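Handout, tutorial session.
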Amino acid sequence: MKLAASPLAMVPFVSVDHMMQLVHHIGIEAFMIDLAAEIEADFARWELFDKTPRVASHSNIGVIELMPTSDQTQYGFKYVNGHPKNMKEGLQTVTAFGVLANVDTGYPVLFSEMTMLTALRTAAMSAVATKHLAGPNPRSMAMIGNGAQSEFQCIAQKAVNGIETIRLYDVDSAATTKCAANLADSGLELIICDTPEAAIEGAGIITTATADKNMQTILTDNMVGSGVHINAIGGDCPGKTELHRDIVARSSVFVEYPPQTRIEGELQQMDPDHPATELWQVITGKAKGRQSANEITLFDGVGFAIEDFSALRYVHRKIQNTPYYIDIDLIADPDDPRDLFGMLKRAG
């Protein structure tokens, strides 16, 4: 006999298929605009959140991490891995799922896939940083690294910041071909480039999103001219960077959470006291962003738990009164809280 579950024990579960249907229902550009606004609003109340560097278990082939945070009303966490070698085995480099819960009971209110959602929120985060740090009215972006994240980045920049032209480059031409095919109906002008130097020519924004878990030099110092904004999002764990140290040295660096970025981002190449401004301070007006037309601004983005919290809250709100989730009895919730064993016995 299957016993009916308490309503409190039923938790909305958003599968990968549900997430994709939700994105199509809202529209991917509208989804990006909404999600960027959600992240921006949470960064504006940054000081309310619990903050800790992600809890990471590193191996020589990848990393598995937990990313928790809370605004004292709700709590969220994400489980995420990063295994660059997976691509050669036909597997995703990054997979993830997440949970949102109420602080007053500890009961979860959402269980969701976050492989797709992480790609969406990472792109939305780059768009938020670009909005606050790039020069006036940039219209062209170089997308260096055309793997799983690239299309999301391009669409987010178009939706949030009005980017019109994307200059694509990857060491693997098949990745560029894939990216260009996926973006063919996006309304973006796509220029396929044979070198990174060609890709950044004339681009007001440079976004790097490569997967190799090494200290790479995707951009050398002589390649980066004055006035550009860089989103460096591929360096996201110890021993993994994308930019030459000299680029970081002559840029104004902006980060999410310094204790995490100094371990995982481009800043790991620099002295421990190398200056960096927290992006939330720019968003709230407590610190200045770009201060001159010739300045190089660098968003050293490694991803932070508050972004995932924002994404989970947004999805939880948008699935209400839709078919884009199922309820699962995730929580054992006996009629008498003291009688968990009795609940088990009656189920037999």
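The second record follows below. Compare its token runs with those of the first.
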Amino acid sequence: MTLDYFSAFIIGLLGSGHCIGMCGGISSMLTSAIPGKKVQLSLILSYNFGRIFSYSVIGAIVGFSGSIAAKNIGIPLIGLRLVSGIFLVLLGLYLGQWLMWLSKLEHLGKYVWRYLSPYSKHFIPVDRPSKALALGALWGWLPCGLVYSTLTWALASNSALSGALIMLCFGLGTLPALLTFSISFYNIKKLVTNITFRKLLAIVTIFYGIFTILFASRQLF
């Protein structure tokens, strides 16, 4: 399980460019109009911790579901790990914009988001950390192929606690880029939008997915 936590953290780091594209602009927009660097930093931290909290809750739900499937239906956990590897490959192809199948999965998540998004108006304007925390927790449910891919690791974790910890580590992996982006907007944006940089991270993700598939296949077959 320690390897799973580390892997989830690395996936968060590798997918930081996508995270900035999805959530970085939101974070900067919500805090840019608030005067004072200390106040802005507290709002940015609260927003991101709320987002990571939601990831952990979703991971717990998915991890519990996976354990139930393994115990009652007889689905082997290593088989779920094989699925995780496949999703990592799809994620790399998605990040590199070579194959956009995960966008269809994001589309399914929009049905849930349709019911949650109206609640965001209750926390705007974001002028105190409690509002930022609540809004971040809400935005953690935003449809995202990167999150959904990592959830396959939580699915194979065999418990609600392990699933929550996997998604917690994933969220922490996305944190450095998003924090730096919010504080130093233009420098980070220039880096993560660099085509060569993005495709390099995508290739690393694909190779990691292939490694996971081979590892799971040897144990399964």
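Points raised in discussion: DSSP finds ten helices and no strands in the chain.
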